Amino acid sequence: MKRFLLLICVAALYMAGCTTEGDKIYNTYNITPDSTGLVMITNPTPGDTVVALFNWVECNHPSYYCQCPWGFTLDTTFTATVIASVPGEIQDAQVYMQQYSYGSFAPFGPVLHPASDTFNIDFCSATSSFNYSSYHQDIRGNFYVQVSTSRGANIVSRTIPFVLTYDYAVPSHAAPAAPAADTLFESPYGSLYVQWCAMSPRIDDFIVCRRAAGAAQIEADTFPNQNWQYSVQDYLPLANYSVWIKASNEYGVSPASDTLRLTTLPPVVPAELGAWVHAGGIVELQWQNRSRGFDSVLVARRDTLSAFSTLCSLPRGEEYNPPTYYTDSTAVAHMVYFYKVGVVYPTGTWWTTDSVGVWIP
């Protein structure tokens, strides 16, 4: 029983020697919470906003998230001013910073043996880079400073809340410079890809322009400044394309980039054409169609004595749901028929390599 009472007394003494402020917990055996202004932070003041400025550079190293050697970058460290009127010599000072106003305080920016009672200490840093101009983020945090003295005391300042915000150091009150056109290529899945790099800050939109050789009309797509590449699905096969990019903001439109040129591949013709004869002489045709950008699909038929003639023209349909089947109810009994399927583009019609034949009983 006496041992149990002794344990209770020890626990009570320990708890009486602890105080809290937010997430900080001090054991008064070796840490003294500052209640008399022994350690004061004069800059920033509670609630201040510190601003990290992005600079426009032309020597960024491309990374997975930043493909271009031009863009915004920052690498900034923020410093607090501390006045420590403590007994004895200051051995070191340590910042404890809490990011996003939650979680625990982590050590940051120690200073060993400050030269005087007034010194500067790093309390926050910001490092980032990107190649578009719509980045914005505010971060709220808290920090405090702990000072250790030659007499074995550890004295802690009050917690300072702050807001870290981002802005741009580069003023831009003019139309953007022309983007740097980088790559134009065609994927085997039926898409044209164009890639580029911005050459100016403060771009609102990009304008991707393309024209097939011989075409009078320029096709242009405008979209917000969020990316460095664009894909086109609606284009002609076996055509010579010219592609260029412009950038725009509230002050105007940039000159055009250098022109990229490409000859597109032949179209993907329908494949795996099959035919089945049902009761009553109904012929069902099915095929795979991975073609894109075409106008329509033609189904043609011939018998053993005649040439192919078009049975029907199927509309293009939705982009990812093109025509893939047809039912022929005009076949005559005791005849052999051959079928083929073609895709129609403004530049011509491409047919399946082989035809498929059926006997009508």
Instruction: State the helix count.
Output: 1
What is the first-to-last residue Cα distance?
106 Å
- The H-and-E topology, N to C, reads as HEEEEEEEEEEEEEEEEEEEEEEEEEEEE
Q: What does the radius of gyration come to?
A: 36 Å
Which structural class is indicated by helix and strand composition?
A: mainly beta
Overall pLDDT confidence: 82
Low-pLDDT residue intervals, each spanning 5 or more residues: 1-30
Shape: elongated
The largest sheet, given as strand count, sense and whether it forms a barrel, is: 10 strands, mixed
Strand content: over 45%
Helix content: under 10%
Could you explain how this protein is built, in words?
This protein is mainly beta and 361 residues long. It is built from one helix and 28 strands. The protein has one helix at residues 2-16, and strands at residues 18-21, 24-27, 31-33, 39-43, 48-57, 71-84, 90-99, 106-112, 118-130, 138-149, 154-156, 160-168, 180-187, 191-197, 205-212, 219-224, 229-232, 240-249, 252-253, 260-263, 271-278, 282-288, 296-303, 309-315, 325-328, 335-345, 348-351, 356-360. Strands 3, 4, 5, 6, 7, 8, 9, 10, 11 and 12 form a ten-stranded mixed sheet that branches. Strands 15, 16, 18, 19 and 20 form a five-stranded antiparallel sheet that branches. Strand 21 and strand 22 (282-288) form a beta hairpin. The protein starts with a helix and ends with a strand.
